[in-house]
Amino acid sequence: MSQGRTIIIVLVTLVIGFAGGFVLRPVIAPLSQTAVAVSPAPAAPQPTAARGTQYFAANIDEARQIVAACRDGSVRGDECANAEQAVIEADSRDRFKRFTGN
Asked: DSSP code of 30?
């Protein structure tokens, strides 16, 4: 008897909670705020597109120059990360080839 009463109390509490949530939803999060939260913010246009990691993998000497310029502070942005990633991958390939003797 006590277990049946507990289950009914839990179910009634859940129903009241869900009904309260549906009723208070417009008050808690108005529709205008949820529309802004769902839609992505417009991105500012970049003056020049950053070259990707594949580009720098094909042009490793230029990637090394960009990495050096990034360390100096004359170049910033995504290009620094892309060039550094390409240099790291090229160096690791070279180390692996030396390690395996190929």
From this structure: -
